[in-house]
Amino acid sequence: MDPIPTLLRILWDMWDVRVLVLLSLAFQIILFVFSNRRKYMSSLWINVVVWLAYLLADWVAIVALSKLSDALGDNSNNVFPAIWAPLLLLHLGGPNTITAYSLEDNQLWLRHLMVLGVQATVAIYVILMSWRKYFWFSYLSLPAFVAGIISYVERVWWVLKLASNDNLGDIVPFKRQADISLDGQEHKYVRTLVMAQKLVKQFKRYIENYDIGRFVFKFPSNQLSTKVQWREKFTSDDTYFWDALEVEMGLMYDLFYTKASIMYTNRGCVIRFLSFVCIMSVLVGSFWAICRKENWHREHYNYSTIDVTITGVLLFGALALEIYAIIVILASDWTMLWLIEHEKGEWVIQLRRKFPWLYKQKKWSKKVGQFDLLAFCFKQNKPAMLSGRLKEKFDRYMHKTHVVVPPNLYDTILNYAYYWSRPSVMKLDEVAQATLISTMKVLDPHLPAFYEVIVIVHLATEICYHLELNITNQRGANSSRHEKQIMETCRTLSHYMMYLLLMCPWALPINLSYTELGNLIHDLKMFIKDKEDVNRACELLKDYPITLHDPYDLRRILLVVQKFVRNFLGWERLRSLWLGMLGFAAIKGDKNYHLQQLRQGGEFLTLLWFFIPQSNILDRIDAAKVGRQINNQVTQLTTSNIDNYVA
Hints:
The chain is mainly alpha-helical. The protein contains 29 helices and two strands. The relative contact order is 0.10.
C-alpha cells in the first residue's frame, strides 16, 4: 500500500522544482533581512530563524539543482531550467550579510569549495543539456552562471578561507589608517570611527595570539604607543572610547560573519559591479524573450505562464537583493571609513545628518542578563511536561531577565580602570584586595573555587541590599542618590554574574558539573523553604546558626557569607569587588566564546573582553608583587580556615 496518496504524488511531481526554487529565494530574503540584526539583537527567535534559514538555504538549493538535472532527462521542453540553475548557484553564494553562522563555518571552507565544484558541474550540465534544445535562453544562462560563480567563489575563497587563515589582520580593509583633525561635537561620529578602525586593526592581530594564561595583557610593543596616544586623545570625553569599542565589535562581527573583508576592496567593487550587470542583462534579456510570443511556437518552446511568473520572481528577487546589498554597503561603517580615508569626512557628517534613520544603527544589544538566585528559590515553578535536568534548565530560562546596561556603569568601569593602572592600586584595603585577588587565583586549592566566590558575594549582596532597604523603610531615612545608585549597580552586577554562572557557565573560568550546581541550588531551596519571603530569608542567612547537619558545601558557603555581611566594607568597595570579578572573568574568557557572542546581540562580558587589553588596565601591575600579597592576605577566604570555622 502506497503511504502517499496518488494525488499528492502527482502534485509533487508537477511542482517539486518550482516549490524548491521559490523556497531557495525565500530563504535568501530571510537571511538578507534578519542575519545582520543578530549583531545588535539578543533575541532567541532571531537566532533560530537565521539558523534554520542558513542550514536550509544550501540544502534546498542543492536539492533543487539535482531535481533540475533529473527533469532534463525526462524529454521535457521546459525552457526555464537554463535560467533557474545558475540562479540557484547565485543563492548558494549567499547574501553579503552572512557567510558563516558560527566561527566553525569559516574553518569548513574546504568543504564548501568541494560543494562549489560539484554544484557548478551540475549547473553546467543543466545549461549544456538545455543548449542542445533551446537557443535564446541558453545564451541568457551564461551571464547568470557568471553571477552565480562569482558569488560562490567570493564566499568560499575570498571570505571563508581568508577569515580562517588570517593571522596578521590582513583581512581588515583599508591598509592606510585615516588621520583627521576635526573638532567639535558634530565630528564625534567621524572621530569615533577612526578610533575604532585603529583599534580593530590592532585587536585582530592581538586575538590571533591570544593567551588566557597570561596575567598581564599587552599589545605588541611597536603598537602600544599608538594605542595609548589615541586613548589619551579621546578620553577627554569618555563616551568616545565606549562608542569606539562598540563600533569595533560591529566591525569585528563583519570580518568574521559577513563579506566585509572583500566587499570594501577594489576587487569587491568590481565583483559587485559584474554581478549586478549580469543579473540586469539576464532580467532584460528574459523580459525581451518572453515578450516575443510569436516566436515561441516556431522555436518549439514550451511556454508556461506559471514558469514565466516564477522566472520573473527569481530575477526580480535577485535584482532586489542586489540593490538591498548595495544599500547595506553604502550605509555601513566601512563605507564611512572609506570616505574618511579619502578625506571626505564632511560627507560622512552630511550623510548622517540627512539620513539619521540609515546611519544611526545599534552596534550591540546593550543589555545584561539578570538572575536572582534567592527569588528563584522562592519561585513556585509551574508543572511542565519535562522532567529532571530539562525541567530545571527550563525553569532557570524562564526566570532570567534582561535589563539595559546602566549608563553610569561605563564611567564606573573607566574610573576603575584608571585606578588599577596607577601604582597606588596596591594601597587598597587589605581585606577587599585579598578578596579580589582570591578570585584571580581559582586554581589554588586553598582558595574557594571561582563559582563559589560568585555565589558567596551574590548572597552577601542580596542580604546587604535587603537589610539596607529594611533599615531605610523602618527609620524613614533616605539614602543619598549616589549611594542608591551604587547599591543598584552592585545588585545589577551581582545578578549578571549569577546569570553567567547559571545560564552561560562556559563563559566563566570554571570547571563545574551540572550536578554540583544543581545540588547547591537544591540545598539552598531546602534551607530557606519555610520562610515567607526574601526579606525573611535574608534575616535567616545573616544570623542562622550553621550546624553540622546542614549540607557541607552549603554550610561552607553560608559561613563565609555571614562573615562577609558582618564585616561589610561598604557599597563602593563591594562594587569594586564585583568589577574585579567581572574583569577577571573577561580576562580568563575563551576567545571563541566572545567571538561567538558577537552574533548573538553581544554580551557585556564580551565588551569588557575588548575593553581590558585596550584600556591599559593591567600594564603596570607587578605580577610578582601581587603574588607576594596573595600569600599574605587571602587567608580569610581559604578553605582550611572555613573548615576550622565550621568545626
